[in-house]
TrEMBL record:
Residues 7-131, 142-276 form the EamA domain. It is a multi-pass membrane protein. Keywords: Membrane, Transmembrane, Transmembrane helix. It comes from Pseudomonas chlororaphis. It is found in: Membrane. InterPro entries: AA-Vitamin_Transporters, EamA_dom, EmrE-like. Belongs to the EamA transporter family. SUPFAM superfamilies: Multidrug resistance efflux transporter EmrE. This is EamA domain-containing protein. GO terms for cellular component: membrane. The chain crosses the membrane at residues 32-51, 63-84, 90-109, 116-132, 138-159, 171-189, 205-227, 239-256, 262-282.
Amino acid sequence: MPLKDSLLALLVALLWGAQVTAVKIGGAELPPILMVAMRYAIMALFLLPLLKRLKREQFGTVALVATITGTLHFGLLYCGIARVDASTSAIIYQLAAPFTLILAFALLGEVLKVQVLVGIVLAFAGVLVLLAKPSASGSVVGMLLVALAALAFALGSVLTKRLGPLDPLALSAWTAVIAAPQLLLWSFIQEGGQWASVQAASAQAWWAVVYTALSGGLLGFGLWFWLLGRNSMQQLSPYLLLVPLFAIAVSQILLAEGISQRLVIGAALTLSGVALCQLRVAQRLFSRLAGRKRQEVADEQR
C-alpha cells in the first residue's frame, strides 16, 4: 500500500473518529435529531448531481436502505451520544462489526468460524463491562441507543448486500435526500424548541454541524471510496480499528472527559473482538477477490 494511501487512510480514520466529539459539541446546544437532519440537508446540497446515477427499478431498495442506515441509524446514534460521553459511545458503536456478522449468518447464510465467534463474544463482553457501572443515570439509555444504532447500521449493510449491488455514490446521495425530511419529521414529533435552539446556537455548534456533514461525511466517505478503488479491503480494514482510538483521543483533548479503568478494560475487550471479526472478514474478501482475479486470467487465456 503506497505511503500516500496509508496517510489518507489515517486521515479518514481521524475524520470519522473526530465526528463523535463534533456530535457531542453540537448536541449540547441543538436537539440531536434536528442536528443530524441538518447534517443530511447540507450533504444533500452537494450530492444532488449524483441522484441520476440510480436505476429507477432500484428506488424501493434504496429508500429502504436509506431509511435504516440514514434515518434510524443516525437518529439513534446522535440521541445516544447526547446522553453518554464520546469515548464510551465510540467503543459501543464498534458492535456494528459483530452485529453485521450475526445478521449475515441469519439472513445470508454465512458461516461463523471459531475466530469470529470468539471475536463476537469479546466485543460484547467489553460492552457489558461499560454497562456494568455507568457514570451517570442517563448513561445506560445512551449506551443502549448507541448499541441499537450499531444494530441498525449492521442491518442496513446486510440488506445492501442482499438486495444489491447498489451504486455507492447514488446510495449516498439518495440517503441524504431521503433521510433529511424523515429526520425533520421525527424531530418535529419528538423534540421541542427547535427554532429557539437554532437561533441560540453558538458558532461552535454550527461548526460542529458543518464538520459532521462536510469533513466527516462527504470528505471522509469520498476518500474511503477512492481508497477502496486502489487497495484491497484487507489492506484498509486495520485502519478502521483506529477510528475509536482517534475518537477517544480527540474527546480527551477537546472535552477532557477522563479515562477510567473500566473504559480501558471495556475498550481493550471490544476492540480485540472487533479486530478478530474484521481481520477475518478482510481475509475472506481478499480470498474472494484473488479467486475472481485468477478466474478472469484463466478465462482470458482460453
